[in-house]
User: Fold Rieske (2Fe-2S) protein from Methylobacterium komagatae.
Amino acid sequence: MAETERPERIRLGPPDMLDGRTLVPVTVGGHHLLLVRDGERIVAAERACPHEGADLLLGRCVGGRLHCPRHLASFDLQDGSVSPGWSFRALRLFDIESASDGLWLRMT
Assistant:
């Protein structure tokens, strides 16, 4: 698909798909992502920790940070930056739009 033909957003599911949960796995275009609720805000993140691939679904979200279950590193949910003391790349984050017709992954 040409760059100009990509959709601006992809519907993930109903607006209540997190239904009180903090972490929900989704697959979009073959990519494994994790929906993360931080208060009223919802973001999508890559599901595998960039350090050694730990499943972040097994982690936890506290105070605006997603904590890896394996190495105790954590990621800022605003920009994906890793906690001090770690020297690997930031976690990839994606914007989520919540609308009356569902949760949408924003591609722009």
About this structure: Residues 3-106 form a domain with the Rieske Iron-sulfur Protein fold (CATH 2.102.10.10). The first strand starts at residue 9 and ends at 13.
